[in-house]
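Quick question, first post here. What does this chain look like in 3D?
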Amino acid sequence: MKLFSRLITLILPKRLRYQIKSKFKQFRFNIRVFINYAYDFNRFTKWSSADGIIKNQDNLKASITMGYHRIEKGLALKNPKPGFGSWFIPGLIKDLDHYQQSFGSDETVQIALNTLNSYYEFNREHDLKQNNIQTSVHELQNNLPPDQERTQQGGILYITKNDILGSSCIDLRSFFESRHSIRQFTSEEVKMNLIEQAVGIARYSPSVCNRQTSKVYMYSRSEKTREVLSYQNGNRGFGDQADKILIVTSDLKSYSSIGERNQCWIDGGMFAMSLIYALHSLGLGTCCLNWSVEKELDQQLKKVTGISDSESILMMIAVGHLPDNLKITQSPRKSVQELLVEKLNE
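> Answer (accepted):
Ran it through. Tokens below.
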């Protein structure tokens, strides 16, 4: 190979050698991009139900969630049309029957049945009787285990403007401006209840059709934490100071159409940002550790952590207590004028 390279150097003009080298570099780059897109393609087609085939319990649960949330959205309109959604209700009932027979009953089933009851009552109040729906719902309810704890969730809630404004009128700008990427932490332990509180807050993040695909894996100071951090190249010099390392994922099994092929990054990203702000609100410091890697590294981390192939890893988050005095990057922000594009009538 070395001899061949020398011959090329002697025979070909410098300009031509540069052109060949550039073309070869571009070819290798294209191959790597193709391989990584193929990795994403294979995972999405394997785990999602975008092909219309229910492959696992999570696929079916996502379909049920999407179905009952359609009803909730319809009922939440100002003037719902009686009988709305009648085209997809039979499919939801069929999914519920399939789920009960295959996996039993859980909270998702109860929420769906509660929502269907709300839908039936709404239509009955508008003189639209749907005895077939009522019969199907009663049969499904009769299959619920008698000792199973019941939930009242599902359907709609009535609230007022003051209910929202009473909790939302806070100085959010100062809160946002006070959050920084922290790279200095104390040795104090971050108690588990703080992480649980933060995740409890973040679960209110929006997600497509309320499917809530995100999950958080937590690692405390340990040999495993150091191993996990070794796969991420942006934590050198401070990662080992963080008391907790979180990995945020989004599960492809909850997506059901080709148009949702990139939805995991949206749902997972919103959840991750909510989690970061939740941790900030509890007085903890955080630093986002990006996971923009190629498939080999992604597979290696999943292997050592046991994270399922069906889950897309969004990022890691370093978490720890703040020291009394510390340094942060200035990180100037773009102006509003650069970010906001006003589209006038053209």
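Residues 233 and 289 are 8 Å apart (CA to CA).
The first strand starts at residue 214 and ends at 220.
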